[in-house]
Design brief:
The complex is a heterodimer of chains A (about 750) and B (about 80). Chain A has 21 helices and 27 strands. Chain A is an alpha+beta fold. Chain A has 3 domains: about 180 residues, Alpha-Beta Complex (Aldehyde Oxidoreductase, domain 3); about 300 residues, Aldehyde oxidase/xanthine dehydrogenase, molybdopterin binding domain (Aldehyde Oxidoreductase, domain 4, 2-Layer Sandwich), CATH 3.30.365.10; about 150 residues, Aldehyde oxidase/xanthine dehydrogenase, molybdopterin binding domain (Aldehyde Oxidoreductase, domain 4, 2-Layer Sandwich), CATH 3.30.365.10. The mean pLDDT of chain B is about 90. The chains are: A alpha+beta (about 750), B alpha+beta (about 80).
Chain lengths: ~750, ~80
């Protein structure tokens, strides 16, 4: 990579301002096109048949009656999606999740699909498909699934990571461990020890837009896919591999996205739509219903976590330990591993140990959800930290400040930290007016910290300068949270032009080099690095063209504030040349002017947040209401502060729903009981106060502007901050998320009864 | 020669050693030498390993130099949302 990513400490003109978002008008007028808004001539309607059983062998599928129904153009089963994964276990799991092969592994698992001339015919056809199931015992609870007598979900899985290779298969796919020092010795030095067990229930990302795509496979083997996704290049790779196509023959265009939060990072329905189109010879639109979204896509892990933390009387933590058990759905994952890495990342600990267990259950395949796995670990750890502060008689903020990690601290997951923001977020919270505001009866205040890694990855940007001097920016990271505006600001900053001269688009997979998806808070971090690089490459050409126009050496031309300037006394009479003037002459100075960049953006800085929450609990009903909420988070550098605030508020809002209401409820039959927004309640505007935000800027040394990711960290502290607030309001420690009214009421009554 | 700290799963594959010494100038050479010394690492490298160099996590920049005396830490390659 011929690009220096180090932080330069420059002063900004465009970056840090708040221009109107470029996608705003289309979104508020309904012109913006989402996954289901695209149509093609001759398009069919795709529908998926799903298992009504939590765990069952698929003995036989008879599609003959459905195929004979008038208007049905294709019916597919797993036979139409043969295994082409060539030993790639992760891809095989994705394939099996798209279409069950030998067993249905959860309620909602796809077993067949149809393409028909309309939705009514497609639904009728699904009813005509006969599936012969052999129902098996199932397990949906994380702790039950770990028992020796639990129904085995995959008898080829033996627990990885044990000292001795196990002789029997298990629902526990992996054990992982992190830490340093000697926790046994550390607890020996503690004057106070808190030890608690916690549970969190499974939640869905709750994106408002369901999974949707239109697939069109031509008879020459080429194909197009229009899809709502967080990563169209990744979807292209997945689909091409699963359908046996060359990636270049499949052109994938990403639509606008109505939320993803990690749930749109791997394929679900898209290979099915392509296989239907291939068989029918016509385009196929496949849109999941909300019921399908809940039953068959998304969810995060349900967890069971034990935490033990010890401290001396002076408030120094001497040891910290956690055992974390996370559900993966029916396929192996690394969710507990992430929880184990993030659990104690906020603290400076001499003795720390975390152990994670990945657990298979008959629930949908677990997907990433915004800082995946970190919120649950933070809930358990930050609850115990709060309780320990109480036992010590210390202010919870002061206790955390005393033990906070800082530059040079060995992190609980291993490496030593560079410059980090946990201390500054805690100091900001300590001094925030929110912490001093009075509380009324039945109200309680809680606070908590959170950590997330943030990632970079492969990134590609094209910057093209038109002959009129306007600039188009083609990026390959899907704009989930406002990156088109942020990247336009970055290009404007580098080129020295006005934001209004730029237009950014998300290019399709045939127009730009490969890009990793928009996950891991990488969109603005990575693509801004590539944009800076592309702009600097374009400036090099602009200088060359100006040198030609002036007939002077290019080394005598510098770029300043959007103009080529001839430096030195010998060119003193030459006026400046604007970007527009140089672009106008480009046809005769060498042709189009563009800057390109292909790079791997690495070195994303870790980020920290501290949240404050006030809750009022009704002791008669157990209902809890958020009265006030404040987010303090390190952004490195906020490129477009309004969007950064939006990310902070969005993470907090999702966390509030997770903490107070949201949960997958399974019946004894292993079927999901609340697959809809009426029974699975996400917060709406009337549930929430205005969420206050405070942006801190501790520059990331590995980005030219100091940018860190901001999208995920904001969902890490809320479960714990709210649990601490509810515990303070209700006078009883809450250990089970969500803290729905029945759970709060039960806890209050149990406390009253002693 | 750089000293490399392994996380739990890799440590087991290295016969219980939590630290190993490798003669490597960059991440690419580090992975190659580790796979030679410990064949059990190969599937892990294929699946993806992140390398923290003095606290900065690198996932894909295999050309990144390993400065003498730097703290080198191997970590699982994680997913984000």
């Amino acid at each position: 990579m011929n690009f220096d990513p180090r932080f330069s400490g420059r002063k900004f003109t465009s970056v840090g301002t708040r221009p109107v978002r470029p996608d705003g008008v289309d979104k508020v007028t309904g012109r913006a096109r989402y996954g289901a808004d695209f149509n093609m001539a001759g398009q069919l309607v795709g529908r998926v048949l799903r298992s009504p059983h939590a765990h069952a062998v698929i003995r036989k599928i008879d599609t003959s009656k459905a195929e004979k129904l008038s208007g049905v153009k294709a019916v597919i089963t797993a036979k139409d999606l043969p295994d082409l994964t060539d030993g790639d276990a992760a891809m095989y799991d994705i394939l099996d999740n798209c279409m069950a092969r030998t067993k249905a592994l959860y309620d909602g698992h796809a077993v067949a699909a149809v393409a028909a001339i309309d939705a009514r015919t497609a639904r009728q056809a699904l009813k005509l498909i006969e599936v012969d199931y052999e129902i098996l015992p199932h397990v949906t609870d994380v702790d039950e699934a770990m028992q020796h007598h639990a129904p085995l979900i995959n008898d080829t899985i033996f627990t990885e990571g044990l000292e001795q290779k196990p002789v029997k298969p298990s629902n526990v796919t992996k054990r992982s461990q992190f830490g340093h020092g000697d926790v046994h010795q550390g607890f020996g030095h503690a004057d106070f020890i808190v030890e608690r067990s916690f549970k969190t229930e499974q939640t869905h990302q709750g994106y408002i837009e369901p999974h949707a795509c239109v697939a069109s496979v031509s008879s020459d083997g080429t194909a197009e896919l229009w899809v709502c996704t967080q990563g169209h290049f990744v979807y292209r790779q997945h689909c091409a591999q699963l359908l046996g196509m060359e990636a270049s023959k499949l052109r994938v265009t990403s639509s606008e996205i109505g939320g993803g939060f990690g749930g749109k990072t791997h394929v679900w329905a898209e290979p099915v739509a392509l296989a239907l189109s291939r068989k029918a010879g016509r385009p196929v639109k496949l849109v999941m219903t909300r019921d399908e979204v809940f039953r068959a896509s998304g969810p995060t892990s349900a967890t069971s976590i034990d935490v033990k933390i010890g401290a001396r009387k002076d408030g120094t933590i001497t040891a910290a330990e956690a055992t974390l058990r996370y559900t993966c759905g029916p396929y192996a994952g690394s969710w507990a591993e992430i929880g184990a890495m993030t659990a104690f990342a906020c603290y400076r600990l001499d003795n720390v140990k975390t152990v994670g267990y990945e657990v298979l259950v008959n629930r949908p395949k677990t997907a990433a959800y915004r800082a995946p796995s970190a919120p649950m670990a933070a809930f358990a750890v930050e609850s115990a930290v709060d309780e320990l502060a109480k036992e010590l008689g210390m202010d919870p903020v002061e206790f955390r400040i005393k033990n906070a990690a800082q530059e040079g601290t060995r992190s609980s997951y291993g490496p030593v930290y560079g410059p980090i923001g946990i201390g500054p977020t805690l100091e900001a919270v300590k001094n925030h007016a929110h912490m001093k505001a009075p509380l009324k009866k039945n109200q309680g205040r809680g606070m908590a910290c959170g950590f997330w890694f943030n990632f970079g990855g492969q990134t590609c940007v094209d910057l093209n300068i038109g002959m009129d001097g306007s600039v188009s920016l083609a990026v390959g990271t899907v704009d989930v949270g406002g990156s088109r505006a942020s990247l336009s600001l970055v290009a404007a900053e580098e080129l020295g032009i006005d934001y209004s001269q730029l237009k950014a688009i998300v290019a399709d997979t045939s127009s730009l080099g490969y890009n990793d998806m928009t996950d891991g808070s990488r969109g603005t971090f990575s693509s801004s690095m590539a944009t800076i690089s592309a702009a600097r490459n374009a400036i090099k050409i602009l200088r060359e063209r100006a040198a030609q126009m002036w007939d002077i050496p290019v080394d005598d031309v510098v770029w300043e504030h959007g103009h080529a300037v001839a430096k030195g006394d010998k060119h003193g009479n030459l006026g400046k040349l604007s970007l527009k003037e140089i672009a106008a002459k480009s046809g005769t100075t060498g042709g189009p002017i563009a800057g390109h960049s292909e790079l791997v953006a690495d070195g994303a800085g870790v980020s920290f947040a501290t949240h404050i929450c006030d809750i009022e609990v009704d002791p008669e009903t157990g209902a809890a209401r958020v009265i006030r909420y404040t987010v303090v988070q390190d952004a490195g550098k906020a490129v477009h502060p309004t969007y950064v605030e939006g990310q902070y508020q969005g993470g907090a809002a999702q966390g509030i729903g997770w903490a107070l209401n949201e949960e997958y409820i399974y019946g004894k039959d292993g079927r999901l009981q609340n697959a809809g927004f009426l029974d699975y309640r996400i917060p709406v505007c009337s549930d929430l106060p205005m969420i206050d935000t405070q942006i801190l800027e501790i520059p990331n040394p590995n980005h030219p502007y100091g940018v860190r990711g901001v999208g995920e960290t904001s969902i890490v502290p809320p479960l714990a901050a709210i649990a601490n607030a509810v515990s303070n309001a209700a006078g009883v420690r809450m250990t089970h998320i969500p803290m729905s009214p029945p759970r709060i009421l039960a806890a209050i009554e149990a406390e009253r009864e002693g | 020669m750089v000293e490399v700290t392994l996380w739990g799963a890799l440590s087991q594959l290295a016969g219980g050693k939590s630290k190993v010494e490798v003669e490597a100038k960059d991440i690419r050479e580090l992975f190659r030498k580790l796979a030679e010394q410990y064949p059990g690492f190969e599937p892990w490298i294929d699946r993806g390993i992140a390398v923290a160099i003095d606290g900065v996590i690198y996932r894909d920049t295999w050309g990144k130099k390993l400065p003498p005396g730097a703290e080198i830490f191997l970590l699982p390659r994680l997913a984000g949302g």
